[in-house]
Amino acid sequence: MKVSLLVPVYGVEKYIEQCAVSLFEQTYEDIEYIFVDDCTPDNSILKLQSVLDRYPNRAPQVKIIRHDHNRGLGAARKTALASCTGDFVLNVDSDDFLSINAVELLVAQQVSQEADIVTGCIRIYRGEKLSETLQVPHEDKKVILKLLLIHNTIPHNLCGRLIRKTLFTDNGISPEEGVNQAEDYAVTPRLFFCAKKLAFVDTPIYHYQVFITGSFSDQISPRHVESFLRANDLVFSFLKQHDVQQDYQFALSLGMLETYYLVLKSGFSSQDILQTCHYKPQGLFKMIHLLLAHKSTIKLLRFVYLTIKWSYKKHLHFAG
């Protein structure tokens, strides 16, 4: 099968050589490389082309697409997806890198399991030091999707997953232009909902580098908040339409408590949320959301969220 590696490029002059070398040296041969230059202001593309010159056998497999103006990460990923021709896609951020045999391992597991999505382990680096390795949770699709929806439980990364392209094209799913905060969350839960079979590789295949530390609320801007809310709204609207059995509504509502908390804690109002997000709490969650009416009860809302989340996770693992 052909695998398309989708790589947005913006402001990564210091890191793109390591990324590109790891991509061009993959042990798997049938790869299509799609780089999207989102009008990077530095020498990232020159560095990329310099690396490519060292791998002439890969040159016919490479496309470099340039936006006519800077449009953001969501748009760059959308352009890459629309331009690729592979059977499966693998997103890679251009300041991260892959293990040399990552594609080969993912493809082998896909073939063995006939899976729609294959996920491997992620190694996280802070600076040059290995910080932690995130293991793959071997759960069924329903459990994984519920854990994704309740937030801050398992990684919702889009990068590093081998994904059948028709999951995107047949279900109208793609990254969204303008959604550059929580952009992975906007896509990953929808793909998992549509997937019929998941598979896992218990080997680190994706190496994620952290260069910015801090919480969501650190120096957050209205643009970031709007993007964050749009990401959550995309997932909510999708499940409202497709989750006819309402298998995921409790998990979704629990996750929205965390979303509301983060936005309010950042100094924005309930009205700001309602302007972007169409979620309306029901039943128990409608009562809990009354705590949002006063700043003095926001901390209590956080406690309620964490308590319900802990209990729900225990229920999921017991049920699984």
Number of strands: 9
Helix content: 40-55%
Helix-strand sequence: EHEHEHEEHEEHEHHEHHHHH
Cα Rg: 20 Å
Low-confidence stretches: 213-218
Please tally the helical runs, counting DSSP H or I stretches of 4 or more residues: 12
Q: Averaging pLDDT over every residue, what do you get?
A: 91
Structural class: alpha/beta
Largest sheet: 9 strands, mixed
Instruction: Tell me the β content.
Output: 15-25%
Distance between the termini: 33 Å
Quaternary state reads single chain
Describe the model.
With 320 residues, this protein is α/β, with parallel strands linked by helices. The protein is 43% helix and 18% strand. The chain has twelve helices and nine strands. Strands 1, 2, 3, 4, 5, 6, 7, 8 and 9 form a nine-stranded mixed sheet that branches. α1 links the parallel β1 and β2. α1 runs parallel beside α2 (44-52) and α8 (222-242) runs antiparallel to α9. The longest helix is centred in the last third of the chain and has 22 residues, at 298-319. Residues 213-218 have low confidence and may be disordered.
